Amino acid sequence: MIFHDRYLVGCAALAVAALVTIPPAHAQAPTQPTDAALNAEAAQNDWPTHHGTYKSYHYSGLDQINTGNVKNLEVAWMHFPERATRGIQSTPLALDGVLYYSGSYSRVYALDGATGKTIWAYAPELDEELVAKQTHSPYNRGIAIGHGNLYVGTVDGRLIALELKTGKPVWDTKLLDSKKMTVGFTGAPLVVKDKVIIGAQGGEWPHRGPIFGVDGKTGAKKWEFFTVAGTEEAMKTWGGDSWRTGGGGGWMPGAYDPETNAVWWGTANPAPLYDWGGADWKKSGPRPGENLYTTSVIALDPDTGKLKFYHQELPHDAWDFDSSVGEFVMIDRGGKKLVVHANKGGHIFVYDRSNAKIENVWPLVKNINFVKSIDPKTGELIGRRDLVEGKVDPPLCPAIAGGISWNSGAYSPKNGLFYRIGQEWCMELTVEKTTPILEPMAQLNIGATFKFIPPPDGPARGHLSARDPVTGAKKWEVTYPQPPLASVLATAGNLVFVPDSVGIVHAYNADTGEELWSRNNGMGHNAGIISYMAGGKQYVAVPAGWGSLVADEFVALYGEPFKSMPKNTGALVVFALRQ
Amino acid sequence: MRISFVMVAALAIIWSWLPTASFAQQSNSASSANPLPQAEASPDDIEGGKMFATTCGFCHQDGGRHAGRGPKLSKSERSDEYIIERIKKGKTGAMPAYGSVFTDGQIIAILAYIRGLDD
């Protein structure tokens, strides 16, 4: 009897357990990426975060599309966003067969990943008068997913959460008074644990480049880190009141290292861009001192926003060669845990992931003369050219658009190669002693006039090189008449995809650089390319659409096709293998 | 040397431009929300070259003598009214609106700097 009762109770318990643990036939689709997916080397079926995974490889583990069949890649579907002013500059995300992406004015679209059918669309109401006053506007460069929400920043200083399944607003938090501070948000947020982290735009803007930590569920601001004079130590590196308008925005999303609980983030240049202090920059000029933490990589505690450690790549950056590139390629090599970060000036910095100590520095581009070199052991700038008022002679290399632009490269853990776009160009520059800007306002703070010119060794151009990420040893290189400005994608199919500036998407053999496939999307690319799985099939999605501030330089440099290329339009083009 | 020239040019343009502004306001009441600038330049306002280097030179290269992100401005055939209107209202996706950032006198000073540019 007792046994019978126990048997019945046991059966009932098993039944209840089964109800709890076995998913029902109509299980809810996942509404947030798993920790395993975020921490992996390769993005698999999904593309859950801006850089693919926290390791920032921009690498897809999918191999349905590979070197053997990429010739059969064709357009599967397209989507056209509304009001694509300045083209499309964002990196899409994919989760459970749904593709999400943002366009200008922070408009967001959720699309069936297999068919392109719209699931929902969202268009926030922005302060249009403010948008009209902004230079770095109204484009948006990406979104984040977590806590059942999708997050997008706005150029008028807000961070918005939408319900991932429906697109309905969950919360809308004003983080910046953009009318007063000028800056807003153009970059993608980064979800880390219970927080959404986002950085304000701009180095040439007279504010203090804050990075925010926001509670994902409620939208409450939990912390704010000022990249300009954010600590007592940093305050001492800004002469006078220059810290009040120092720039330094962290405008691209960084990455997260769970082993050290550190969010790695790159910061922009200080303002004004071009300092006339010359060799006496520690004591004179518009912003005397090292100007911490501008043009730096910083590691923040995601729980508190406190600075854990940092390295300033260019102390007292006098050339607008900031550290805003958001990809932090986390690799393990010879028992060392390393992180690789590209600086706009054209150098690649390799750090110890536990403390941001320099492991190596190597140049990606040939035409660099703002320094003679950077010490590969210490990171010290050797032979820096500090500018004074008047014409800079010889012209400065690279040009203001940098030796490396803000979109990301890729790393293949399969062959250990790092794929990065480099830019070869210089500029004539005249530094002007401008009136100090002491209060934030809706205007730039440049301090110079300039003109792009070809470098001494040939025409202004770009290149993709495949290199060892730690030593910089080059395996192969492809040169382009005009630098590609979009992100790069590597895949387990042994492919590297490069969307270029004239509108062509190229697929190369990842080991040799041999071009295996190309298609013309009809307009230049300036966004992020991803790969994902929907309905058991691999897709490659690339936004086409031209018109960033660097892209705008191409008309004067190259003429056609850029002179005739429409700037205020765009399309998301999704490729799949022919059936 | 250049600044001196620009200051003279700025004053000359303010002088010659006043009647145009008055006429524009009288002839188009609908534009009262964005009236053409009034002459209110002070010595601090008319350093158009410095203002250009602070803000405009980001897009108009070589101090406005060469096309870049924005068009070449030296020897522009556009009218004063057109340039002032463009500075004030901007162009979506290409140029910010500076109507509430710069004073009318500063805008005139920038115009004077542009008109004083050689090639």
TrEMBL record, chain A:
Signal peptide: 1-27
Cofactor: pyrroloquinoline quinone
Pfam families: PQQ
Domain of life: Bacteria
GO molecular function: oxidoreductase activity
Pyrrolo-quinoline quinone repeat domain segment(s): 47-357, 469-540
Keyword list, A-Z: Oxidoreductase, Signal
Protein family per UniProt: Belongs to the bacterial PQQ dehydrogenase family.
Full protein name: Alcohol dehydrogenase
